[in-house]
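The instructor's notes for this session suggest beginning with a concrete chain rather than abstract definitions. Hand out the sequence below and ask the class to guess, before any prediction is shown, which regions might be ordered.
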Amino acid sequence: MLRRFPHLYIMKITTCLVGSFSSGKSTLLKRYMLKNDFDKPELQPTIGMAGLEKHTVIDNAQIKNIIFDTAGQERFSSLIPIYLRNCDILIFTIDSSDYYNSFKYFKLVIPGIIDLNKYIVVCFTKTDLVSIKENKRVQEIHDILVKYNKQYNIVYTSSIKNINVDMVFTYYLKQVLDDISISTFDKSIQVSDDETSTGCCILS
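After discussion, reveal the predicted structure:
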């Protein structure tokens, strides 16, 4: 049970997961949603896009985070800008164990979507399999992103070992909350204790 907030406002934001096929997007999202109930999943490839909803409370606002998981096959890459049009946070996954294909996809997709998002998280997945910190490959990512005037952060994760998974999804939530340009912040909405529990649901 969350403590009572006298004026708890609802803010809806959207987060979008983008990355090459089998780069760990769905597994990362499943670990974030299920926490300690997570088992190593046997997931089917995402077709098009799937959405989940996660509620968290920061300061005096309840954040309803709509998280979209996109397909990583190249044949769906032309649809990515459509999914990202109204997205607040972009999470781009790079498979540490298959860097070549992940980086190839990154270079293919990022020019067309870089201006659609203010906040970008580059998430190196599967770091339990390959140590990539301080690797020259990470510098390649920096060299591309530094050309754009965007806020970005690089996070090293392992969904299987639950390393830095929450950080990927929560790193920019406070910044988005404080960003007065986000039009979805409706200060006229107030909620009671019964409406502030954390949870998730599948979007239809």
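Then share the key points. The helical segments are 25-34, 80-84, 99-113, 136-145, 165-170, 173-178. The longest helix spans residues 99-113.
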